[in-house]
Amino acid sequence: MTLRDQVEIDLEKLVFNTKDLPITCIYTPVTGTGYTIVGYFSNEPVDVDSGSYASISSTAPKFRVQTSKLKSIVKKGDLLTINDVEYNIVKPQPSALTGTTEFYLTRN
User: Fold this and answer.
1) What domain range includes position 61?
2) What total number of domains does the chain contain?
3) 7 sits in which H/E element
4) DSSP string, 45-81
5) In CATH, what number is assigned to the domain containing residue 92?
6) What is the pLDDT of residue 29?
7) CB contact set of 94 (below 8 Å; sequence gap of 6+)
8) In the chain, % of residues over pLDDT 70
9) How confident is the model at residue 44 (pLDDT cuts 50, 70, 90)?
10) Do 29 and 37 contact (CB within 8 A), yes or no?
11) Cα separation of 24 and 82, whole Å?
12) How far apart are CA 39 and CA 74, in angstroms?
């Protein structure tokens, strides 16, 4: 077993255990059929520097998934549906180090 295989197994057990992380959504590529994936969704508030004394508060929705669970390469414009809310993927960011892909999202 390679180190990469062991990391995949560890991620499966520790991070992507559906008992601890029950966020199931539908990923739909621009060209193709949608399918269910499990991962971590966050929609934390972020302060944006407006260049003046007042700051602007916004949200930054993101979704992290185990890369090996994806059937194809995620592209800008693909869709993610979470709890009946549709999000556009504006930036997919895979990480070879963690074996995950993070989607930066915007709500449709």
Assistant:
1) 3-107
2) 1
3) helix 3-14
4) EEEEE-SSSSEEEEEEEEEEEEGGG-SS---TT-EEE
5) 2.40.10
6) 95
7) 67, 74, 100, 101
8) 83
9) confident
10) no
11) 7
12) 14
